[in-house]
């Protein structure tokens, strides 16, 4: 009975609301239209940059790119209600990027608020006003682009010591394409229309993003693609190629259903690393030179947890992702992305806070659940192997993912997930 109940809760959590009720379409009533300021200025994208950008992201500029990247925006949910902190997006290859943006937004909602809000009930912070939603989305987009440009840490450029100021680049579309369809280039309706805007300060970048936020936010718009393009150009095409470690690989090559993990690492760290381990590992044997594999170079504010199944242990993140400085984690559970978070800033700094606590799980498909994690089970029961083995058999994939961080913890679902 316990197993079936937990399995039912997990199944409900993983199912998208649109999959459960395909005939029902909900139109939020309390949303506002962002002002649509015409795009003025910037430098038209050069043909060489246009072709290199498309190839690096999608693998080719001679064939059409994945169409969902031009139709997925960073769309906010209705303000002032449950889940108002959340983005909503369809399940496609943009989900990893959008979920990582969601995690950065949660950081701002919960831990980057004004001093007068520090003592406010955290649940109130998770039901933001419209103005607060816009402020946080603007800050999250700006932060991601600025980090990609090396604006927060010199460690985004391995083995390079430089006093060069960060240069963030934002791309926005115009109506007229600068390059025609040809054998070498397949028009996608966006890349060939881009204008590039450069910024050397985070403050100027945020002002600009807020002015043109509608281009990133609008549902059915190219917001996800514009953010990825801006981050890639801010990082630099050559640096992104070095990050990928294989000149034949693109960011979205062999892309799984909800997008590659390297995009999540890009958003969280500013580097498109295919590796999750700490620091640098040199891989080789007696017959080959040791090749450096660059992982996560410094502790992240937002973490990353992975569970890829029982039969395949797969890659596990290093401690710099498992133990971030704030209690927020992007999760990758059997190919599906979500966010785990706790509203107590001290959770990872105080041993006593980690003994028993609640943790929330959210997906950009609109599913939400609260679970209680109890790490005292070993102290109380002596950690019986038989007891833990039984608990592990009954555990859902999400519980196993949580235990990749809090080993052998007792996990309790608090009611049915909210859809």
Automatic annotation (TrEMBL):
Its EC number is 3.4.19.12. It catalyses: Thiol-dependent hydrolysis of ester, thioester, amide, peptide and isopeptide bonds formed by the C-terminal Gly of ubiquitin (a 76-residue protein attached to proteins as an intracellular targeting signal). Residues 54-415 form the Deubiquitinating enzyme MINDY-3/4 conserved domain. This is Ubiquitin carboxyl-terminal hydrolase MINDY. It holds the Pfam family MINDY-3_4_CD. It comes from the Eukaryota. GO terms for biological process: protein K48-linked deubiquitination; proteolysis. GO terms for molecular function: cysteine-type deubiquitinase activity; K48-linked deubiquitinase activity. Belongs to the MINDY deubiquitinase family. FAM188 subfamily. Keywords: Hydrolase, Protease, Thiol protease, Ubl conjugation pathway. Hydrolase that can remove 'Lys-48'-linked conjugated ubiquitin from proteins. It comes from Cardiocondyla obscurior.
């Amino acid at each position: 009975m316990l197993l079936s109940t937990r399995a039912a809760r997990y199944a409900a959590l993983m199912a998208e609301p649109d999959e459960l009720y395909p005939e029902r379409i909900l139109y939020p009533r309390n949303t506002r239209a962002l002002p649509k300021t015409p795009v003025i200025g910037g430098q038209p994208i050069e043909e060489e940059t246009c072709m290199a950008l498309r190839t690096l992201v999608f693998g080719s500029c001679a064939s059409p790119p994945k169409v969902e990247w031009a139709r997925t925006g960073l769309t906010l949910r209705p303000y002032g209600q449950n889940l108002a902190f959340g983005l909503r997006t369809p399940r496609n290859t943009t989900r990893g990027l959008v979920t990582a943006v969601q995690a950065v937004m949660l950081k701002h909602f919960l831990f980057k608020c004004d001093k007068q809000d520090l003592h406010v009930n955290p649940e109130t912070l998770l039901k933001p006003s419209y103005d607060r939603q816009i402020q946080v989305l603007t800050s999250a987009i700006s932060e991601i682009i600025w980090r990609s440009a090396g604006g927060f840490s010199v460690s985004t450029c391995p083995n390079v010591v430089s006093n060069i100021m960060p240069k963030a680049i934002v791309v926005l579309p115009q109506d007229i394409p600068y390059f025609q369809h040809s054998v070498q280039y397949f028009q996608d309706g966006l890349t060939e229309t881009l204008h590039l805007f450069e910024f050397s300060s985070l403050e100027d970048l945020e002002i600009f993003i807020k002015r043109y936020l509608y281009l990133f936010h609008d549902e059915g718009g190219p917001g996800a693609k514009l953010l990825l393009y801006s981050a890639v150009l801010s990082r630099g095409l050559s640096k992104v190629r070095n990050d990928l470690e294989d000149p034949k690989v693109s960011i979205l090559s062999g892309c799984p259903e909800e997008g590659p993990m390297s995009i999540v690492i890009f958003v969280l760290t500013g580097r498109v690393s295919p590796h999750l381990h700490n620091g640098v590992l040199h891989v080789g044997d007696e017959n080959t030179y040791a090749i450096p594999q660059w992982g996560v170079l410094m502790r992240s504010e937002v973490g990353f947890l992975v569970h890829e199944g029982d039969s395949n242990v797969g890659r596990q993140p290093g401690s710099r992702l498992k133990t971030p400085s704030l209690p927020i984690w992007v999760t990758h559970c059997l190919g599906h992305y979500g966010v785990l978070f706790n509203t107590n800033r001290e959770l990872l700094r105080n041993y006593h806070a980690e003994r028993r606590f609640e943790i929330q799980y959210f997906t950009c498909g609109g599913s939400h659940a609260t679970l209680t994690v109890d790490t005292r089970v070993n102290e109380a029961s002596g950690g019986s192997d038989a007891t833990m083995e039984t608990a592990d058999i009954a555990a859902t994939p999400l519980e196993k993912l949580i235990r990749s961080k809090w080993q052998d913890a007792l996990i309790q679902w608090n009611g049915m997930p909210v859809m």
